[in-house]
Amino acid sequence: MSEQPPKTTPVIDPAKAALNKNLETAFWGLFLIMLGGQFLLKNVNLPEGIWDFGIGLILLGLNAARYFNGLKMSGFTTFLGVLALVGGLAQMLFKFDLDGALLLIVLGAMLILKPWFDQKGLFGKAEQS
């Protein structure tokens, strides 16, 4: 029988954990303001997809802030951000609602690119950066 290598416990950096919490709190605030604005301005004639586009910018902005602060990005919020951004753009520019088709395309692309993301170490728990 071969020996299993010992499992390493992930090291959590308290400073990075605090920074990530502050970033997440700020971006949750932006998300809730955007959502409130959507409800408040529901009768205003804005382009279709503008809210999806905004949510995508917020989610991708969170991960950009993590990246530039030396934290690992979240694959989940990056995935949702790309989905919302591209879906919003498609609605605004082409009056084309992508719904589930875009979800499948982006999910497939993420699976194909996963080995590259793993090699670069871009995604994971921000506290363990």
Mean pLDDT: 83
Largest pleated sheet: none
Shape: flat
- Name the poorly predicted regions: none
Strand content: under 5%
Characterise the protein shown here.
Helices cover 68% and strands 0% of the residues. It has helices at 14-40, 50-68, 75-94, 99-120. Helix 1 packs antiparallel against helix 2, helix 2 packs antiparallel against helix 3 (75-94) and helix 3 (75-94) packs antiparallel against helix 4 (99-120). The longest helix has 27 residues, at 14-40. The chain is built from four helices and no strands.
List the topology elements.
Elements: H1 14-40, H2 50-68, H3 75-94, H4 99-120
Summarize, please.
With 129 residues, the protein is mostly helical. The protein contains 4 helices and no strands.
